[in-house]
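Researcher: I've been going back and forth with a colleague about how Homoserine kinase might be arranged in three dimensions. Neither of us has a model we trust, so I'd like an independent prediction. The organism is Sphingobacterium deserti, in case that matters for your notes. Sequence below.
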Amino acid sequence: DHVRVFAPATVANMICGFDVLGFAVDHPGDEVAMYRVAQPGVRIRSIAGDDGRLPLDADKNTVSACVKMLLTHLGLQDELGVEIELTKHMPIGSGLGSSSASTVAGLFAINTLLGNPLSKTALMPFCVEGERLACGHGHADNVAPALMGGITLIRGHNHLDVISLPVPTELYAGIVFPQVDVPTRDARQLIKEKVLLKDAVTQWGNIAGLVAGLYESDYDLISRSMHDVLIEPTRAILIPEFYEMKSIALAAGALSFGISGSGPSVVAIAKGEAVAMQAATEIQQHLTAHDIDSFKYVSAV
Ligand code: HSE
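Model: Here is an independent structure prediction for Homoserine kinase. You can compare it with whatever you and your colleague have in mind.
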């Protein structure tokens, strides 16, 4: 009696929407295989693809901790036994929503194994708790798109209010992960608590413009709107060659370029797969020329 679940990587913030916008990609993603066993309790059988970085202790591992949380919520913690095999297909601390993908896969798996007692909407707060365990802050802009797919807007965090937005058919992402570690916890501490009103006005104009652009499939409007004046200037310093990569992406025809989540991955948003591929390839060549190893992923949004 077992299930296998895949949950995708996600690009949080979608460049201009810090903590409120995010989208899922087709690949990479993490996999959870969950087995129902006779002995009660939640255990990790194995973790692959993490270079030994994740804890096997079921109380410390985010995936198993979230599964336990859900079982406790359902009053099943003393009777149900499950064992987990986690396979990671993306780097940790990369800005691709790695912990979110594992958490969502784990929670979706246990919910499926139990015959879906919770809807996706009801599962969402448990996913957010997983994010909080992983990085100290319960933002939903990775877990929401990982669970729902497509593009999601998190209108409210206090009372979670998640809205799925339309995905224009030709929207593609060229993602490059320069191999330096930027933990979300650290990248959040850098950000200033206060912003200037004029910058806030620019930012919410852009967020509204992007949402309108998605509804209209208006790629020019999407391109004009995807700029971040609040967070990027601070976080860009953690990312090698950031502004050079931006110039390369825009010259290759990308609609926009920015940080994926809290970085260090960067993302070129493009109309069409060919442009996304071109931008990501040229960025990777630039990094190689500067002795920086990288991975690239090109996917439909
Ligand atoms: N919105 C979050 C941030 C996503 O930018 O810190 C990171 O997981």
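Researcher: What would you highlight for our discussion?
Model: I'd start with this: The pocket of L-homoserine is lined by residues 12-13, 18-19, 139, 141-142, 184, 187-188, 261-262 (CB under 6 Å). After that, consider the following. The radius of gyration is 19 Å.
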